[in-house]
Design brief:
By secondary structure, this protein is an alpha/beta fold. It is built from ten helices and nine strands. α2 crosses α3 and α3 packs antiparallel against α9.
């Protein structure tokens, strides 16, 4: 029984509904499984990803992740722990890659906050729509983490290198209007209901076209990106397995838990 991700069908459009605003270990397993199944369904012509939670996604559920994989993230100097961390990163990457590799167009319907892992998910989609109150952030840098689930690889193609680097270096919050201006989203909507209706309308317009042609268009448009994205994902998994553990990361986690400003020292 799915806990974090539920899938329904509306005609030839499938709707993937996120059940929680954070991403715990169960989320990744269920998302990957859902999109692997959708990729094998010839009746599906487009997919919409929406959230039933307060926000589209706040990203990783840090308490759950640390509870399940804390020893791996601690790292230390042991090759076995670093190898386990790399394997975990690659496994979670594969879940978002399953979204990107879905043979039909995938539309992200973003409301409220879309942070960290939420942005990784959104950038794995073909199109993004959002509410006017949406806030989007590539937040990992501010908590001493090199984002490793796809945003650094996919954002430059979507918004251009300059905007992508600013988002990654600063870790600030983009409002809906700036997201629209830089091409991160295609359209904004007044509220969640209008957003979902707009996403479904767009999906149905896509679904009305010849299905094999639409699949072919996506295959051709994404073919050239895959090798570069795959190489970047593999590299950042190796990078973080070597360098993720740091005093700054521990400080970031402590500051997060106690709701204070972190003091980073570059160690």
């Amino acid at each position: 029984m799915a806990e974090a991700v539920k899938v329904s069908r509306e005609g030839s459009v499938s709707v993937v509904r996120l059940q929680e605003a954070t991403m715990g270990p169960v989320f990744f397993d269920e998302l990957g499984e859902a999109f692997r199944a959708l990729s094998l369904d010839d009746e599906v012509r487009a997919v919409v990803i929406a959230s039933e939670a307060k926000a589209f996604s706040y990203g990783l559920d840090l308490p759950k992740v640390m509870q399940s994989h804390g020893q791996v993230f601690a790292g230390g100097g042991l090759a076995s722990q670093r190898s386990q961390l790399r394997a975990l990163i690659l496994r979670w990457q594969a879940c978002f890659t399953a979204v990107a590799r879905c043979p039909v167009p995938v539309i992200a319907a973003i409301h409220g906050w879309c942070i960290g892992g939420g942005l990784d998910l959104a950038t794995a989609c073909d199109l993004r729509l959002c509410t006017e109150d949406a806030k989007i952030s590539l937040r990992e840098t501010r908590i001493a983490i090199v984002a490793d689930l796809g945003s650094l690889q996919r954002l430059p193609t979507i918004v251009g290198a300059g905007h992508a680097r600013e988002m990654a270096f600063v870790g600030g919050d983009l409002d809906a209007q700036r997201a629209l201006r830089i091409g991160l989203v295609n359209e904004t909507f007044s509220n969640r209901e209008a957003l979902l209706n707009g996403a479904l309308a767009l999906a149905n317009r896509i679904a009305a076209n010849p299905p094999l042609t639409v699949r072919g268009v996506k295959e051709v448009m994404t073919y050239g990106e895959r090798q570069k994205v795959d190489a970047g994902l593999d590299y950042v998994a190796a990078w973080n397995s070597a360098f993720l553990a740091s005093e700054d990361l521990s400080e970031a986690m402590a500051a997060f838990m106690t709701k204070r400003e972190p003091q980073f020292k570059g160690r």
